[in-house]
Amino acid sequence: MTEYAVQARGLVRVFDDGTGVRGADLFVSPGEIHALVGLNGAGKSTLMRLLLGMLKPTSGSITIAGRGLEHADWSAVGHLVEYPLAYRELTCRQNLALGARLHGVPAHRVPVMTAAVITELHLDQYTDRRSGKLSLGNRQRLGLASALQHDPRLLVLDEPTNSLDPSGVLLLREALIRRAADGAGILVSSHHLDEVARVADRISILNAGRVIGTLDPHEQDLERTFFDQLLADDRSDDRATA
Q: Is residue 22 part of a domain?
């Protein structure tokens, strides 16, 4: 039986305004970059929060490396969902050291680990700058560095290229490819089809809280296929409620 980096079956969590997740099925294999795409409000962030235990599903199941969330090894998970978490009064180095310790990294390994990710994401000149003084793009790099630094076996990243300049996008792309090659399972949400197609092994489409189909990252007219599937799903819903 395949042990997925993360697997969800029949997830349901609907909010009072009608948005949320409705019966979503999803899995990410070790060594795979799996992209999740959809329009704003499709439920991407909600689904990722459910996978990470930040929200509790009304129904459905989630496993990480074959374990339920209550028994998951969270030291082997890295994430960045919606906004990078950083203490404004702490420097980049201090924030990363704190994040590493929270992920169970032994104290003696923290300096080497943080130095490596600072170099990897080109944060060297900001190492001793307080995070509250960083630009939005560099704060995003800091959040990504915290998610990446402990070499997690599962990475969950929500719109990770937000606020990044082209060089930052390229650095992130290379970092994800390296980690997937080392066996990490990576789930990335985005509304930039052209960007995720450069790194994804598989692309799933989320619409109205449901995974409605997949896209081939190598397809020529990816955007047209994406919107065709959305339109077909919306028409199917209209017929069902008519």
A: yes
